[in-house]
Design brief:
Elements (H helix, E strand, L loop, with lengths): L1 E6 L8 E4 L3 E7 L1 E6 L2 E6 L3 E4 L5 E5 L5 E7 L5 E4 L2
Antiparallel strand pairs: 1-8, 2-9, 3-6, 3-8, 4-5, 4-7
């Protein structure tokens, strides 16, 4: 699966995990924070982040403009579990 996500300023994704697959994030525009497990890192245009199999992850737009990124993962071999 290839998807594009646009997060407006101060928005974030729902935290979740994918059991059974890795996921790759490609950041195209803006700036934010990528949370993986208990760690977080700043992301900007050009950042590429690998989410290991089964790791909790979330993206937070910390900038004043849209944060645009793409994700790639194998949907046929995973189950998404959203944070409560």
């Amino acid at each position: 699966v290839l998807s594009q996500v646009v997060l407006h300023k101060l928005q974030s994704t729902r935290g979740h995990t994918h059991e059974g697959c890795e996921e790759v994030y490609f950041f195209q525009f803006g700036q934010g924070t990528m949370v993986i497990g208990t760690e977080s890192e700043t992301v900007t245009a050009g950042s590429i982040v690998l989410v290991p199999d089964g790791q909790f992850h979330r993206v937070i737009n910390t900038g004043l403009s849209d944060l645009i990124f793409h994700t790639v993962y194998n949907k046929t071999q995973n189950r998404t579990v959203y944070a409560k």
